């Protein structure tokens, strides 16, 4: 890793709260309200009921309370996902969830466990970024900047380790002059390799960390620009709590 890249990563980690503080924390919880066109394409009725997402920073683990029913919860790890009721009785479960997406077509419907798997890895990734980039096995290099509405965003390309479940192995991240993550580009393997441009905004400070309260994901055109007429996912995040 070059000295220049080292300095840029240090600036990014410091802007978000510091890598040492992150490594000392156990995980993160946030209240999420979700919208966008993806869910209808997948045959899912996604209302604006707030749900509580909790993740572990140092292993791939996610729990979402209020998943499909106010008294149900979903727990995800890469090898297993389950939905349980308030008493802990299993409503549905599945091993090897990534293999269960069938033909992965653009409008192929998802069942509740497909949704649980997708939500599990996505929320884990979002909660842990950008500090994941300091962990072993992540290969990082600089790429050309992109221009946003008000500034040039510095770019990093990242190859995720084979054993980390996320949208896809190769992802791109873009950071503002303040060091905060502003844009995240990827292809969604389990959704027809759909290209996405994911924007983060309206940061708040909690226990010394900076977290976005708005995530807006758009289809990404071949030239890299976002299609603002096709909003695939929106996530409003609040009530952050560092564990």
Continuous helix count: 4
Order of helices and strands: HHEHEEEEEHEEEEEEE
CATH topology: outer membrane lipoprotein receptor (LolB), chain A
Class in CATH?
Mainly Beta
Task: Write down the overall mean pLDDT.
Answer: 96
Tally of extended strands? 13
Ends apart, CA distance between termini = 31 Å
Nearest-angstrom radius of gyration? Answer: 17 Å
Strand content: 35-45%
Could you give a short account of the major beta sheet? Answer: 13 strands, antiparallel
Number of domains: 1
Task: State the share of residues found in helices, binned by percent.
Answer: 10-25%
Helix and strand composition category? alpha+beta
Per the principal axes of the C-alpha atoms, what is the gross shape?
globular
Low-pLDDT residue spans: none
Just name the CATH architecture.
Clam
Major beta sheet, strand line-up? 6-5-4-3-2-1-13-12-11-10-9-8-7
Structure explained in plain terms:
With 243 residues, the protein is of the alpha+beta class. The protein has one domain: Clam (outer membrane lipoprotein receptor (LolB), chain A), CATH 2.50.20. The chain is built from four helices and 13 strands. It has helices at 3-16, 19-24, 38-41, 112-128, and strands at 27-35, 51-56, 62-65, 73-77, 80-84, 90-95, 139-147, 152-159, 170-175, 181-188, 194-206, 209-220, 226-242. The chain has a 13-stranded antiparallel sheet with strand order 6-5-4-3-2-1-13-12-11-10-9-8-7, covered by helices on one side. A hairpin with a 5-residue loop joins β12 (209-220) and β13. The protein starts with a helix and ends with a strand.
